[in-house]
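[Backbone geometry]
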Amino acid sequence: MAWILLILILVGAWMISRMKTEVDTRVKKIAEAIAAAEGYYVSGSLPQRLNNPGSLKGSDGKLVAFASAQDGWNALYRQVQLILLGASKWYTPDMSIEEIARVYTGGDKPDVWASIVAAKLGVTPDTPISQVV
């Protein structure tokens, strides 16, 4: 009987770790698409110089300069996780990429931003972010 319980515990742990990996993969995929739209991969770009792949802003409305690229990526991953969990102050999981673009870009070429993000994700701009896999 004890070995059945052990098997159930191990299977449960495996399923939880697999779910976490899938979420992490999805978060990273979305974050990389946002970084592309923000110009992070352009050599010498402002997001690259600031170690800020998501062009994230602080409470003062200015772009944040992160100490390292990893710090910037981690902040962007957190932002994407908040969006997908419905815990963001500005975005919801049912918002389309177009709708997110209007807020995220502050009105600065949201159609271009949405097109880049959608193309990188292999979806259309009217796709809700929650449906990106």
Notes: Confidence is low (pLDDT under 50) at residues 10-19. The two ends are 39 Å apart (CA to CA). The CA atoms of residues 95 and 128 lie 5 Å apart.
